[in-house]
Automatic annotation (TrEMBL):
Belongs to the ARG7 family. Keywords: Developmental protein, Growth regulation. It comes from Hibiscus sabdariffa (roselle). This is Uncharacterized protein. The lineage of its organism: Eukaryota, Viridiplantae, Streptophyta, Embryophyta, Tracheophyta. InterPro entries: SAUR_fam (IPR003676). Pfam families: Auxin_inducible.
Length: 100
């Protein structure tokens, strides 16, 4: 249990660093239900997905967050969390997480 909570705390911390300074930005929080977060996915043209925050605790998703940090840092000009993977991979990952 402690490992899972630690993973969630780390993911939450990364998200807070990513979104810091954007809390007042209405577009960053509009149309995102409580308990969810918006992410941008894809190479070139990015598509916006709204996912449950529970996904952030999964090791495969944490790997994507680490890759996002390495590739984009925490000051990305798009103003949101951008995941560096193909849309197809992201959809297959979220399908897997949704079924578990």
């Amino acid at each position: 249990m402690g490992i899972q909570l630690t993973g969630l705390a780390q993911a939450k911390h990364k998200l807070q660093r990513t979104l810091s300074g954007r809390i007042g930005n209405v577009t960053a929080t509009s149309n995102v239900p409580k308990g969810h977060v918006a992410v941008y996915v894809g190479e070139g043209n990015r598509k916006r997905f709204v996912i449950p925050i529970s996904y952030l605790n999964h090791p495969l998703f944490q790997d994507l967050l680490n890759r996002a940090e390495e590739e984009y840092g925490f000051n990305h000009p798009m103003g949101g969390l951008t995941i560096p993977c193909s849309e197809e991979y992201f959809i297959s990952l979220t399908t897997l997480l949704n079924s578990s």
